[in-house]
Amino acid sequence: MKDKEKLRTRFMRDPLPRRLGGLAATLGRISSSARNSSDPTVISNLLDEAKHLIEWTAAETSPETAAELVQMQTMISLWQRTWQESSQNPKQRVLLSVQAKNWSDKAVEFSGLV
Predict the structure, then answer these.
(1) Looking at residue 62, what DSSP letter applies?
(2) Rounded average pLDDT per 10-residue block, the chain, 114 residues
(3) Counting Cβ atoms within 10 Å, is residue 34 exposed (0-12), middle (13-18) or buried (19+)?
């Protein structure tokens, strides 16, 4: 991720609900890009961004939400580690897309913005 500290500074200025909404947006981009992008680096970078957004946010949420975010972060790390190979398999691409959409929906729910 380019300019991680700049992203962190900007991200942390927002209130918690907006940060969770930002996480949901990043997860939504993973969902759509996993199906459509031909460059595995794009998804890998988005996965990295999502991991950091969770890291910067989870501690300020309720213990239950934090636990779910940490589980999400663990799965994102596993996807990122295997994405170069997984991106060559259309079924794996669809699986990540569906999973990221579910995560995005969950993050929106956590945010209370809807």
Answers:
(1) -
(2) 84 96 97 90 96 96 97 97 94 97 97 87
(3) buried
